[in-house]
Structure formats: structure tokens, C-alpha cells
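Hi W., the adenosine-5'-diphosphate complex you wanted:
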Amino acid sequence: MVCGPDFSILESNEAANIVLGKGETLIGEKCHRALRQNSRPCLDCPLKDTVNSGTIIPLVKYDDRFNEYFEERCVPIISETGQLSSFILTAKNTTKSRELEEKSAQLKKLSALGQISSGVAHDFNNVLTVVLGRVQLMRRLTNDPYFIKSLEMIEKSALDGASKVRKIQEFSRPGIKTLTESINLKTLVEEVLEITRPRWDIASKVKGILIEPVFELKDDLFIRGDSSDLRNAFTNIIFNAVDAMPNGGILSIKTDKIDNYICIDFKDTGTGMTEETIERIFDPFFTTKGVLGNGLGMSEVYGIIKRHNGKINVVSEVGAGTTIKLRFPTIQKIEEKISPAKQKYTGLFNIYIIDDEEYILETLQDFLSDLGHTVQTNTSPKQALSDIKKSHYDIVITDLSMPGISGLELAEQIKALDPAIQLILISGWALNLDESDLENRIDFVINKPFSFEKITYVLSEVGKKLLPARQNQSS
Ligand code: ADP
Ligand code: MG
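Structure:
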């Protein structure tokens, strides 16, 4: 718009007419009325600041008629005598660009946060590796039930810590979730029942109601996954069941193996759900509990079950109750869970370990020497390489990130010396290596923190590859 010194509109373009004048011309109206529905000149009129300062000072205003942001600019036109003869007033919708700016700032923040947290996660994994390693070594040395129990608690806490660190790593690099544990479903459910007992047992007794738990838990059902995530999912489901039975009821949990699936059903005799509620149960923030709920429980459950390649099914009837049915793929009862003592060794090896963290070296060395292997260690990759040139090693275990050289480069140089050497890469980073990164260099990857079961398992796999070669040599 072009306006005179008395703020009356002399010219208005079509956009102004459409947006502010419902299609009619704005000529003759006051700009403060057309733009802001003010009967007097606006107190924050950008013309004043612009004229006073001598540079154009834009004003950003939120317009609640349109729910959008506008940037207003006045360009004064000064006559030869120095008087304001008129001014051009423009208003530009900046809602979209504001959103883009905000989004890009948010992305930058997240990426910085991701970088910081993945560094922290890496360092934490090293710390936890030593804690877990030492605990596991100590457990082999004691029969005292008190010590065993304490060590088990330390171990479990360290593992939970490791799982939290993995969450941070997933956040900074989503989609790399590793489901490595083989989990005994019965043990897991029993743990969850202990954790949730205050809600379904004690609290309900205080309220004078009875929640009666009924369990049918089969032995020897194993699923592959992340126990801390699954514990969290089962807890959410149980809490919902308890919430649905304000007057008490029966909570039954049943596990079974049907066809090729491991099944677990959580059944309550609570309020049940309407069709609409069932449809929205997995929506984040959907809750029927008002301020008592946050609506995040079941959406989290959904994500966790999906990540475990599982299925979730909700069966519910208003007034009768609800059954949440989970299905997981079966796995063979896997080797990782066989304790080192019971593991059949396929051989004793000459092992070289390289890691720039001395405590990790020592812990691994103690463990592997304990098993009877011959172990040499070094914190310097360069020194290690020259040692490996001089004498024969069956297995080299190397850290991924070390000063000067990466574990991958080192692996390549070692394989060039002797392709028969088996290379195990250990890493505290959230590994996202693809096949081509590993090809011809790395035989196994182990993430920190690792359990000795995992190391033992990998060694027995490595042994399977090494021993036939040895037998061929000797025959
Ligand atoms: P919240 O528990 O915070 O409300 P959830 O995501 O855990 O959030 O659950 C969402 C909604 O699904 C609940 O508010 C409730 O209406 C319904 N719901 C979930 N589980 C049950 C159940 N076992 N019985 C009845 N309703 C349920
Ligand atoms: Mg809930």
C-alpha cells in the first residue's frame, strides 16, 4: 500500500485488497484500520522507528485473525523540502519461513546433541566394560552367597546402564538397535512382577481391593532382544491392567509356544475398551485417564514390540476386560547363555589384544588367560603390529578407535601379514559398519560393554574356523 502522511491509503495492490479488504479496494481507508483494526495510529507503527533511525526497521507481528506472522515494513518517501510526502507499507507473511528457521535450528541442536551424546556413550561403554568384566571375574572366585548376590546386583545395574547408553546411541543414530540378548521369558516376567508388585499388590490392598494374579509361565521359552526394553513394555501393560481394575479383579499372565511363535498374554478383568479407544490405544499422548495418564505407555510398548519383530494384538470388551497378546519369533536356545564353565572349548589359542584403555586390556587378559589361552597385550597399535610380524598369533582382538590408527586399518594390515589370523573388533561406538567395511578384515564384531559369555561364544565360533585349518596343517 502507498499511504499519505495522515495514514490514509492512496494505493493498494490486489493482494492487500484480497487479504485485508475482502476483495474491495482499500483506497481512502486508514492503514491502521485496514491492517490492525485500530482507530488510531498504532503505537508500535514501524514508520516512526524507521524515520527516526534513518534505516528501515521491520516489525514482526502475530495476527490472530489469520493465526500467522507478518513482517511489516515502511519505506518513507521524503519530499525535496524534507517533509514526509508518503510511505510505502508492505506486509509479508513470514509464518512458513519462521517455521523453516525454527526447524533448522532444532535440527542443528539435535545434531550437536547427537554428537555430544555419542561421545559420552562411547566413554561410558568403556567404563561399563571394565565394571562388568571385573564383576564377572570376581564371581568366578567366590562361593559366598552374599558376595554372589551383591555381584549379581552390580552386574544387573551395569547392564541396565549399558542399555540406557544404547538408547542414547539409538537417539544419535537411530535404527541401529542391536538385539543381542537371549532372554528367558519366564525370568523376565517374574522380574517385572517383582518390580510392579507395589502397584498391584501393596497399593491395591491399601485401597481395600484385591488384584489376584494368576500365572502360567512355561520354562525354557527364549526370545532375542533387549531385556531392559521388554521389562519396560511389560511394566506398562501391567500398570494399564491395574488402572483398568479400580475395584479389583484378576490379572493373568500366560506364556506359551504356539507354532513358531513365543506368545505372552496379559489378561485383565477390568473396564475394557470401546472400539474408538482400541483404535487409538497406540497413539502417542492418547489417554482416557485425564491428568493421571500421559498416553505414552502403549505407544512405547508398540515401538518396543515392533523393534523385536513381534506382533501385538488387543482384544477387549467393555465391562469384561482386556487381553493384550504379544507374539515374538522363536530363537534357538542360544550359546551365549551357556556359562563359560560349561562351554566346550574348541582349542587354546595365541591371542593378541590391542586397546588404548589399559583397564580393558587387563580385564580381557585376566579372563582369557584364565581360560588357558596365551595372551599378549599392548596399548600401542604400532608396537602390536611389529610383534605380530615377529611371531605367530591365531587371534587378534582390537579396539575400533585408537589414537593414530583405526581398528579397521590395523585389521587390514594384520590380515595382509597373515590372512589366517582371526580378527575380532571390539567397539564402544554404535557400530553402523556395513559388509564392505568388514570385508576381508574383520571376522567378528563385539560391542562394548560385553559379557564374558559373549567373548566365550565368539571364541568358540572363531575356534570352529581355526581348528580345521590346524588339523589340515598337522596331517
Ligand atoms: P495412559 O495409561 O497414560 O493413559 P497408555 O498409552 O498406556 O496411556 O494407554 C492409553 C489408553 O489405552 C488408556 O488411557 C486406556 O484408555 C486404554 N487402555 C490401555 N490398556 C488398557 C486396559 N488394560 N484396559 C482398559 N483400557 C486400557
Ligand atoms: Mg499406561
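The pocket of magnesium ion (ligand 2) is lined by residues 236, 239-240, 297 (CB under 6 Å).

W.
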